[in-house]
């Protein structure tokens, strides 16, 4: 496990490699987008289209609830959920956390804000993902491919848990390289759901980190309980949680820990798009106080803490969560209109 060290001049940021190994290309995958870096090999992105929440074509067992599927697939799969009727007012990309899948958003999709063309991504760290993703020291490359794979730009990016970590890391790395990730990926706003974030290396004391191996299984068990609606026997839930942990493995878990430990060196003050941070008041995985700290460090952000709700709040409280996201995208639309001179009253100035 990596650890943060400091000098008299302050903490020394960890050094990330400039290049990453290319992931294995699966024969059934179809490339649909150009790679973000012409000189670097990238994994293919597969797209599907559905008019209702996507049900994965991968094999399932009868006891596995949606969001914790089993099977295989290319490293990144994108699923399009077009607007059922009425005008398209925006686009949204949903990114799941560690050990879940795109179907973790199904309850939210059933209550999604009007006018939004939604895209869900199955990422390598899904329960049924490519087990080799954790061999690379940086997981942001696959997040970049998901963003690149949405035609016309990602629009509003909604990232949960581990993917929220990766989103912040990707933006930081792009900005360090002198690139504009917001224009590059068409990001208009961010919704960071249950984000992990600590400001200083000193906040990672030994006691705070040693609890995570034991808690990890409990977090996976909570996710299974939420996705199954509490219909499974507790012993089956525990058995399934252990299977999910086995699939993630120690290397996948270490990728999470490593990403978390690097958050003190992120510079969220450079994020120039609006951000909504959404947390559950009863989250057993991450303290909502971390979401509050992140909100305070962002230049244009606010936080919503949903009461009586845990880590998987988009499943536990889909209507309330959808209302929060809907209010956010409405505010983005209002800002965009105010910035177009033709949409302002005569003599009215932009805010």
Instruction: Kindly state the number of beta strands.
Output: 10
Strand order of the largest sheet: 3-4-6-5-7-8-9-10
Structural class: alpha/beta
Q: If helices are DSSP runs of H or I spanning 4 or more residues, what is the number of helices?
A: 10
Mean pLDDT equals 78
- Overall body shape: globular
Q: State Rg.
A: 20 Å
* Amino- and carboxy-terminal Cα gap: 47 Å
Strand content: 15-25%
Order of secondary-structure elements: EEEEEHEHEHHEHHHEHEHH
Unreliable sequence segments = 1-43, 51-72, 343-351
Major sheet summary line: 8 strands, mixed
List keywords for this structure.
351 residues, alpha/beta, eight-stranded mixed beta sheet, two-stranded antiparallel ribbon, 10 helices, 15% strand, globular, disordered C terminus
Short summary of the structure?
By secondary structure, the chain is α/β, with parallel strands linked by helices. The protein contains ten helices and ten strands.
């Amino acid at each position: 496990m990596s650890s943060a060290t400091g000098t008299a001049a302050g903490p020394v940021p960890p050094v990330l490699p400039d290049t990453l190994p290319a992931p294995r290309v699966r024969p059934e995958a179809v490339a649909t987008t150009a790679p973000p870096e012409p000189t670097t090999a990238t994994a293919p992105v597969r797209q599907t289209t559905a008019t209702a929440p996507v049900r994965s074509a991968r094999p399932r067992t009868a006891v596995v609830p949606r969001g914790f599927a089993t099977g295989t697939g290319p490293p990144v799969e994108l699923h399009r959920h077009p607007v059922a009727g009425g005008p398209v007012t925006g686009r949204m990309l949903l990114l799941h956390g560690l050990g879940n899948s795109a179907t973790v958003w199904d309850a939210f999709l059933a209550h999604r804000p009007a006018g939004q063309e939604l895209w869900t991504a199955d990422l390598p760290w899904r329960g049924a993902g490519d087990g080799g993703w954790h061999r690379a020291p940086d997981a942001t490359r696959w997040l970049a491919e998901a963003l690149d794979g949405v035609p016309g730009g990602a629009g509003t990016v909604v990232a949960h848990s581990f993917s929220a970590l990766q989103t912040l890391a990707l933006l930081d790395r792009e900005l360090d390289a002198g690139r504009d990730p917001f224009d590059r990926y068409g990001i208009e706003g961010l919704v960071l759901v249950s984000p992990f974030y600590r400001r200083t290396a000193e906040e990672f004391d030994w006691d705070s980190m040693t609890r995570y191996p034991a808690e990890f299984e409990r977090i996976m068990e909570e996710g299974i309980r939420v996705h199954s609606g509490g219909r499974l026997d507790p012993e089956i839930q525990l058995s399934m949680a252990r299977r999910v942990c086995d699939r993630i493995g120690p290397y996948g878990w270490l990728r999470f820990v490593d990403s978390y430990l690097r958050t003190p060196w992120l510079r969220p003050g450079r994020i120039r798009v609006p951000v909504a941070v959404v947390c559950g008041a009863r989250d057993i995985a991450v303290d909502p106080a971390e979401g509050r700290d992140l909100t305070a460090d962002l230049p244009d952000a606010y936080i919503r803490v949903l009461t009586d709700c845990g880590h998987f709040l988009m499943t536990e409280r889909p209507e309330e969560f959808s209302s929060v996201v809907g209010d956010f995208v409405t505010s983005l639309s209002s800002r965009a209109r105010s910035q177009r001179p033709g949409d302002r009253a005569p003599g009215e100035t932009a805010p």
